[in-house]
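Risk register update: the risk that structure generation would not scale has been downgraded. Supporting records follow, first protein first.
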Amino acid sequence: MRVRKHSGKGPQPAVVVDGEVLRQIRQHARSCSKTEVCGVLIGSEDKNSLTIEACISGANAAQAGTHVTFTQDTWAHIYQTKDAKYPDHRIVGWYHSHPGFGVFLSDHDTFIHKNFFSSPLQVAWVYDPHSDEEGCFGWVGQRLERLSEIAVVDHKGGEGAGETGKPEPMGSFDENEEEYLAVKKPERDEEAPRWLRITFSVLSYTTVLMIGFLVAFYLFPRILIWPVDAMGRPLTDRPIDARSLRREPPPPESVPGKDSGVIEAPKSGSDKEKNVPRQK
């Protein structure tokens, strides 16, 4: 990896970090968005190059809003985990979070780095979970400065096509079908005309409304009329359906009588004369 000279103070260390390590640092920092968290970086050194391959979270650290401290219990947990999982690696630096106040090294952070991570290639990784900003600080000569070149690698990538050993998904297309699906576009000429689609929709809605009206007309209660005379006596032996009034002719004209209740009106003038007494 190219190493850049920095103001004549000495070269910056070439730092390579695994992308999985960054994901774990971010996840740890986001789990405590109001207080700082810390941990150590595990990896290897080669001349002026530093490779960060893993990290160990700082359990039982003394956390506060603006600083964090490695306690005796924290170091005991770190060394126990390192000996069990990374016996052939070394501690190449540390990380901590700055929740909401940017990426830099405070006086307290500088004190920790100078007293516990004073090796020329050991670095400090700072991450702000609120702004998602991060940076790496290391020794440039005799000063701690933010490094300008960091390489991130993804060891989960690099898988060749057709070399996974996984079964193929169900269903496939041949070359001609794939070209057809990639090029074929729907043509508006194949669609029905707009006026025809609108007419069909209107007829469909009208048909549904008419069917609903007929069903309601025959299923809902009907109106029955029972005609009576002036004395309140029924004129028919059964009620009349209101719907039949539009089809049946009205009943013959009648007037109330004394005996039968109905007396037909005289049909002609000759009948009237029969009831008139002659004059002598």
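Supporting record for the second protein:
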Amino acid sequence: MSSALQPASPHVRDSAVAATESPRVPRPSNAEAPAANARVRLKAAELSAFFGSSEVVKSISMSFRDREVTAIIGPSGCGKSTLLRCLNRMHETVPTARVAGTVTLDDQDIYARGVNAIEVRRHVGMVFQRPTPFPTMSIRDNVAAGLQILGRERPSKTETDHIVEDALRRAALLDEVSGRLKESAFGLSGGQQQRLCIARALATRPAVLLLDEPTASLDPISTQKVEELVYELRQDMTVVIVTHNMQQAARVSDRTAFVLAGELVEFAPTNALFTTPSDQRTEAYITGRFG
């Protein structure tokens, strides 16, 4: 795999202020707004996605910048999750599905001939709406599962234990499970299972983390913990989150994209999109007139 798909060295992160302040998730000040030349990690260009002959994502172009959280909002069935799945080649796992256009990670086309889809997903991790721990595996082995793709480069047991511990710590779960690593992951609560899935994605040290409505099935306390986790993860990587919850998008994201009927209607800094949207359709959606 080309070095273009290797995680980059750390950079100092800038961030934008969200439209809605919340005491639960700390927000940066206006003085910390991202620079216009902030580094782009992931980029979609004229990206379209199909199920058979049906086009569900329509020529979307957008960039996802380093050390930022991008939220994707829109009504049910508008193509948000399909767009997300195109960003790490999960869309192609569905029968009759296909993609047109390009997606680049650090300027390398992830759909180019010879690029391994599994390797792409190692660097562009994904967490789904419902927690998906592997039922026959322990908590420890769930986190380590993604390392199996490394083959001969797979770390030793001692190294794996360190990676698992670090991933659980970054997912804000280590303190809650440190004495239970050999137990089944199904003994965890729903919120803990979701953070376990995030830890599993973090274990491969991705450059980008995709979150598809990660709190949709969680209670308010678990939702808060995941939101706080997203805020922390932006210090190390690019995060893209699909959410139906506009308040959540305002709390956790630097930039927000509004998608409608498969089209990108508006993509702007979160505070600007929620306070002074440039498209009437965006204003109608965020004020609850439809969706």
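The first strand starts at residue 40 and ends at 51. On this basis the risk owner (M.S.) recommends closing the item.
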